[in-house]
Design goal:
about 180 residues; alpha/beta; about 40% helix; about 15% strand
Length: about 180
């Protein structure tokens, strides 16, 4: 610390190895859901794909669909960067934004935006998409999981129990990953 004010103090730190990794095949579709600071790993994912595209301009990337949520425009993390990434990735990256606290507007959350795009989400899932969810465990992750159950249930005309089993299988395969707190 400054002027050794904290010399002799110990700070307990826990470092956990992350399992969040992009699929090795760059053509695999990716669905990312990260409101608030949960968007941070996805910024890294997209930057990694930008670099990959710079080094491999002839490789067509799979769809990278990011659902980002913030309270309002003042809370919109990395706002200036996303459009640059979209341009550099030539249509393989799309960002869908949900703002929950805009004046005189209803609250909209990432899971609402996912549900609005359920036909496209189901198609991406059927094409082998990986799903990554990062952020609030109590509300967002739980509600997003329910949204995916509904997408499978309605899209495949199956019961919710079967849809839960599909997601359970995807989790065991590492195709549905959550980093939530």
């Amino acid at each position: 610390g400054p002027r050794n004010l904290f010399h002799g103090y110990k700070l307990p730190v826990h470092v956990r190895k992350s399992t969040f990794r992009l699929p090795t095949n760059p053509q695999t579709p990716v669905i990312m859901i990260g409101p608030g600071t949960g968007v941070a790993p996805f910024r890294g994912f997209i930057r990694e794909r930008v670099r990959f595209q710079e080094l491999n301009p002839n490789v067509k990337l799979g769809k990278h669909l990011l659902f980002y949520g913030s309270r309002d425009l003042n809370d919109f993390l990395y706002r200036d960067e996303w459009e640059q990434y979209k341009q550099k990735l030539n249509g393989s990256f799309e960002m869908v934004v949900a703002h929950s606290r805009l004046p005189n507007q209803p609250k909209v959350y990432v899971q609402d935006k996912v549900k609005e795009r359920e036909d496209e989400i189901l198609k991406l899932l059927q094409d082998g998409a990986f799903v990554y969810i990062c952020g609030d465990a109590k509300g967002m992750a739980k509600d997003t999981h329910s949204t995916f159950v509904g997408i499978y249930s309605r899209g495949l005309n199956i019961g919710e129990t079967e849809a839960h089993e599909i997601i359970k299988m995807l989790k065991s395969q590492g195709k549905y990953q959550e980093d939530v707190w």
